[in-house]
Each structure stands twice: as C-alpha cells, then as structure tokens.
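Consider a protein example.
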Amino acid sequence: MVHPPRLEPPQRLVRNLGSAHPWLREVASVAEELIDRWRLRPVRLAAPGGRDSLVLLVEQADGAPAALKLSSLGSRRVAAEAAALTRWDGLGAVRLLRADADAGALLLERLQGEVSLRSLPEQKAVLEAASVLRRLWVQPGDHPFPTVAEHTGHAVETLFAAAPAELASLVEEARANRERLLADAGEGVLLHGDFRQGAVLAAPGDRAPWLAVGPHPLVGDPAYDLARLARDRLHDLVASPGAAAQVRRRLRRLADSLELDQERLRGWAHYRAVESGLRHLAAGDREDGETLLEFAAWV
C-alpha cells in the first residue's frame, strides 16, 4: 500500500468541523485505502482546502495528474455532486474521473487550485463567470437533486422561524420574495447551488479556461444561482464608497449578462443574503451575519 503524505487537515477545515469531529480521525485511513484501490500516487495536500473537505493531489497509474477530494458531508451529498459532474461531463465544470460516495470520495481532473476567478479584476471575473454559468444551466434529466423549493424550505422552517424580532421586517420580505419567485418559477435547470468566483478555477491548457468546482446541485430558477455571485467580494464592496448604488448596478449587469429578469435576480439575491446572514448569526459570526443583512437591505 502506498501511504499518502501525512494528512494534517488544513486549519480552516478543522475550525469549521471542530477538532473532535470523527471524520478528521478517519480521513487518513480512507485516503490510504482509496490510493491503494485506485492505484494512485500521492503528491501533496492542497492548501488551504475547503470548509468541509480536503483535496489530495495525486497521479494516476499512467502518470496523469488528478485530485482526490475527500468530503465530510456524507454519502448523499457526495453522490449528488458526482451526479451533477457526470451530467455536465466536463462542460463548464471539473471532470469526474471516479467516485465512491460511501467513502466520501471523488477523483477529479486536476485544475489550478491556487488560481480562481477572484484573481481577475472584478468586471473580467463577472464576464468569465457568466460564460461558465451558460454551460452549467442544462436540463437535469432523470436526477437525484433537490429543488430550490425543497432546499430553501428547510431554512424557512428553521432559521427564519428563529430569527430575532428586530429582523422581522427583513425576514418577512425575504420570505415573501421566496414565495413569489417559486410560484412562477417555471421549468428548472440544473444549478451549481454555490456558484461564486472562488468556486471557478483555472483549467489545463487544452480545456476551457475556467471550470466550476464544488457544486451543491439543485434544480430550479437560474436567477437563484446568479444571486450568490451577486454578493461576491462582499467585504470589499461594503467598504467602498456608494456601496448601495454599486450593488444595484452589479445586479443589473449580472442580469443583463445572462439575459435574466433583473427583478427575479434581485428577489433571490435578497432572500439568499438574508438566509446566509441568519445562518452566520446563528453560528455566532456576528460580523459576517450583519454584513450580509446590510447587503440584503441594499438590494
């Protein structure tokens, strides 16, 4: 058996999961078993890694580079990610080479993990992001993915119900936006679910220049996907002069770039910012939570 480099999970992952999380104790042995079974040669652990997974750079038996992603999210989430990547088949997204959902493992083509769309100037990054999204928004076919209605329904039942009283007006507006947008959503497409500049990486030379990674796949309104991108580089945006006006201009540019209805994008951007803000507040992250709610008030 080929042993991987000492697997010291990145600190961001440890902080997010908690140092006592059982997955952190098991991941090294899982990696060893997969390396042996899939005949991989470990190279190094990618840093800084994700918030719920780690990536080990490897070489396949024929010497081709790849990336072994090990996720803490459980077999159902990993199976959904694998199904989405299979559906895209490398068009707009990283190519899936092998999967073992029970082990929480995906073997992926290796991209340039250190180079994301965040390395580009803002306007160029938005143009490239729009190009990627056009490729991802396909018919889902016979799929295992939750719908946007199902996914957001859980947040409404939990986070929204427990929101502080002083946020009642903002929360009710977000709830109303969700109900209105779901009522006339029409036929949905396959969505990335967590599309942002940091989830789009530079690809090898013979591929499209930028490819999406780390989907949380859903089926629904394309504006829901674009709404997450609308608040990218949020802390820079909040610190800049005329932030509220910049937010509205950004929404208009994004909607125009993908020929989407601006009001639908505005509604989902508001809902998603409120949901994320409440999630951060519930986790004790007051600074980011309040920033997200401030963004929602500007939308």
Remarks:
- The mean pLDDT is 92.
- The first helix runs from residue 11 to 17.
- Strands lie at 41-45, 53-59, 65-71, 96-100, 105-109, 112-116, 189-191, 200-202, 210-212, 218-220.
